[in-house]
Amino acid sequence: MSNQSVSAKYFPNEPQQPIVKTTSLNVSKQEIEALGKVFDSRSAYFAADYSKSIGNYIADVDGNLYLDVYAQIASIPLGYNNPALIETAKSDKMIRAIVDRPALGNFPGNDLKEICGEILKVAPKGQDKLWSGLSGADANELAFKAVFFWYQAQKRGYKTDFSREEVESVMHNQAPGSPELAILSFERAFHGRLFASGSTTCSKPIHKLDLPAFKWPKAEFPSYKYPLDENVEANKKEDERCLAIVEDLFKTWSIPIAGVLVEPIQSEGGDNHASGEFFQGLRDLTIKHGALLIMDEVQTGVGATGVMWAHERFNLQPPPDLVTFSKKFQSAGYFFHDPEIVPNFAYRQFNTWCGDPARMILAGSIGEQILKNDLVKVADRVGKYLYEKLEKLQSKYPKYLKDLRGKDRATFIAWSLESSEARNQFLNDMKKVGINIGGCAEDSVRLRPTLIFEENHADVLIEAIEKVLSKY
């Protein structure tokens, strides 16, 4: 496929513009109300009609067709109803995986090595192993387990068996069998809504209110001044300040820090960026203090930022110890390379299914399509085109396009408005002109389109943004 028309070749009948038949969404409201009797539907934006969604456009039940630059919260890689993925879904291998879903830990199929191999073709540099999970939050929690097992094994000896005291105390949730250990994460981070991942999340209170939490440390993530090229020295000092906080937490926290968890770009927390120097500093500190580095690529991975994995831009030496993934991969888990991150005994990193081979097959197919069509370069090219147009709009509407960020990060772009009320109004107004778009943090807008979002789609988006802003 030609990079210049990859979307058109997947979707020759994709519309050229959004279709807005009604803004009242009466049918959608009825569907959501009916759904609410059996399922909590209070967070629903609208009821979608996926049978009519195509490429970069999502349909609703009222007959509207929106250009979707949110893409299921960053998790649609190749557009709706992608024909290549439909062919994969129809394969005999997929049918077996769905109908006879295996318990991979005990009864792996004779095709599992091949399935893993397809995923590993697009693994982050330096990573040659994986463990599969069910969601982004699950991937992170599985990574925490791997880190804690590794940390304790280093203390007692990798192949050394557990002591009688450990075996007895763990049954009462007491040390030494249940040791006091911590994962260090960052303020404004989002890593999931389960118990342990919730303890590392720090973006919005609603994500974790009433949930019991581990008493784990939070460092400060750099808060940069924009534009970056005019604030180099200030932002360098910000890196140094934040790294000093991490160093201090390693030295003073009440329990040992076994791992550091960080997003290459804090996404849900506001699209907060940091430099390669900051991340190399984290890498150096984990080595210095005998901890592991987990790179959370759930939202940034799989080509979203113009490289396959966002942290690869930093060329970290040595590479991160674990890299978690989900969203655009349609699967979940973590990559790693050190054999000693495999728990020292069987049945430790384990559950009934150990992931989902159907989703793993789909992930391999997604990776194949990305490589075949050079879609990472497409995203990078289109991102440069889009960012330049957004810069011009920022000059024209500085009140509503503040702190534009994501330059040279493909279409992984965000900006801020003056308040959360203004942001929410903007999102609603964009729906009325046929754009499905999302927010992050309290006052920011984030773009998360597919990897087949091209210049013609960017033009539609820019026209819609200007149409909305011109009325404010």
From TrEMBL:
<dbReference type="InterPro" id="IPR015422">
    <property type="entry name" value="PyrdxlP-dep_Trfase_small"/>
</dbReference>
<dbReference type="InterPro" id="IPR004631">
    <property type="entry name" value="4NH2But_aminotransferase_euk"/>
</dbReference>
<dbReference type="InterPro" id="IPR005814">
    <property type="entry name" value="Aminotrans_3"/>
</dbReference>
<comment type="subunit">
    <text>Homodimer and homotetramer.</text>
</comment>
<dbReference type="GO" id="GO:0030170">
    <property type="term" value="F:pyridoxal phosphate binding"/>
</dbReference>
<keyword id="KW-0808">Transferase</keyword>
<dbReference type="GO" id="GO:0009450">
    <property type="term" value="P:gamma-aminobutyric acid catabolic process"/>
</dbReference>
<dbReference type="InterPro" id="IPR015424">
    <property type="entry name" value="PyrdxlP-dep_Trfase"/>
</dbReference>
<keyword id="KW-0663">Pyridoxal phosphate</keyword>
<protein>
    <recommendedName>
        <fullName>4-aminobutyrate aminotransferase</fullName>
        <ecNumber>2.6.1.19</ecNumber>
    </recommendedName>
</protein>
<dbReference type="Pfam" id="PF00202">
    <property type="entry name" value="Aminotran_3"/>
</dbReference>
<dbReference type="InterPro" id="IPR015421">
    <property type="entry name" value="PyrdxlP-dep_Trfase_major"/>
</dbReference>
<dbReference type="GO" id="GO:0034386">
    <property type="term" value="F:4-aminobutyrate:2-oxoglutarate transaminase activity"/>
</dbReference>
<dbReference type="InterPro" id="IPR049704">
    <property type="entry name" value="Aminotrans_3_PPA_site"/>
</dbReference>
<comment type="similarity">
    <text>Belongs to the class-III pyridoxal-phosphate-dependent aminotransferase family.</text>
</comment>
<keyword id="KW-0032">Aminotransferase</keyword>
<dbReference type="GO" id="GO:0005739">
    <property type="term" value="C:mitochondrion"/>
</dbReference>
